[in-house]
Structure to design on (306 residues):
């Protein structure tokens, strides 16, 4: 049974179903940060977990859409295949960059650069798709960026000398480029009748293939893993599939314009991650962080009303 049909069974109201896609996208995306946090805390083999997660996500997607996948894959256009290849490759590159950037510059700088990339797809969708620009939307975007900066701000950051490191800048560009291609592909896939399940599955298959090539280059020591690494890889794969599937589904609903959905999703993920970090990992919240959370609530209100 397709994921969309499962959602229909529980949320019969159409508008409620549309909103639940956004909510699930936020929850699953936030869970990714929690899994990475736990894995790093337990000193697990992140590289193995990343590769395995894409295998699990690919298998899950295929099981949910095998009839449609087998039918469409032979007729999918070259443009959509190229988009899938680019997104799938960027997925694993971004995951690796997040891991490297976190170690070199700290989680604060990495999170800011990753989530600040939201401005790239927002500007792209406003210009390329000629979406309506009004004062509320402009204020919502500005407030969202302020919320992200304030929420992840850490006055005690020990890695200030690395703030200009090129890796976070590459991550910024990579995350923004990924979101742009996802939006472009989503519009193209919807017109071609390609479902979220099929395209999401294709993305993860490409990511897994890229991950295999990456795995081959690792040293023998880096290839060692145990049962807990496998368990985390499976969990991450399930959550990762959901994060992409529900995000693409949210874009398909058109309950809000794409720029608004990007803003709501990215802002909510940052705030939720900070709150969970405070509750689960006892990470302290400064007054500036709390101000960021307040700004995020204001941003969401502005964007949804625009």
């Amino acid at each position: 049974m397709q994921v969309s049909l499962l959602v229909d069974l529980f949320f019969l109201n159409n508008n409620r179903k549309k909103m639940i896609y956004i909510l699930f996208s936020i929850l699953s995306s936030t869970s990714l940060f929690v899994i990475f946090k736990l894995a790093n805390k337990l000193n697990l083999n992140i590289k193995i977990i990343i590769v395995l997660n894409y295998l699990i996500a690919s298998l899950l997607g295929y099981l949910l859409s095998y009839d449609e996948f087998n039918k469409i894959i032979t007729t999918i256009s070259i443009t959509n295949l190229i988009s899938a290849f680019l997104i799938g490759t960027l997925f694993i590159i971004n995951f690796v960059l997040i891991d490297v950037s976190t170690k070199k510059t700290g989680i604060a700088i990495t999170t800011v650069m990753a989530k600040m990339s939201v401005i790239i797809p927002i500007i792209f969708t406003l210009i390329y798709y000629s979406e309506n620009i009004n004062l509320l939307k402009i204020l919502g975007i500005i407030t969202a960026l302020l919320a992200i900066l304030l929420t992840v701000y850490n006055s005690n950051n020990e890695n200030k000398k690395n703030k200009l490191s090129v890796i976070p800048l590459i991550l910024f560009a990579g995350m923004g480029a990924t979101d742009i291609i996802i939006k472009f592909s989503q519009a193209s896939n919807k017109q071609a009748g390609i479902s979220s399940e099929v395209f999401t599955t294709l993305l993860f298959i490409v990511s897994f293939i890229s991950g295999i090539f990456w795995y081959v280059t690792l040293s023998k020591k880096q290839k060692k893993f145990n049962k807990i690494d496998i368990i985390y890889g499976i969990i991450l794969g399930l959550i990762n599939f959901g994060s992409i599937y529900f995000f693409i589904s949210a874009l398909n609903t058109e309950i809000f314009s794409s720029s608004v959905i990007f803003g709501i999703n990215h802002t909510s993920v940052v705030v939720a991650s900070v709150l969970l970090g405070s509750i689960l990992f006892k990470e302290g919240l400064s007054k500036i962080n709390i101000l960021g959370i307040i700004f995020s609530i204001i941003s969401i209100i502005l964007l949804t009303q625009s």
About this structure: Residues 19-305 form one domain. Residues 160-164 have pLDDT under 50 and may be disordered. The chain has twelve helices and no strands. The chain has one domain: 19-305.
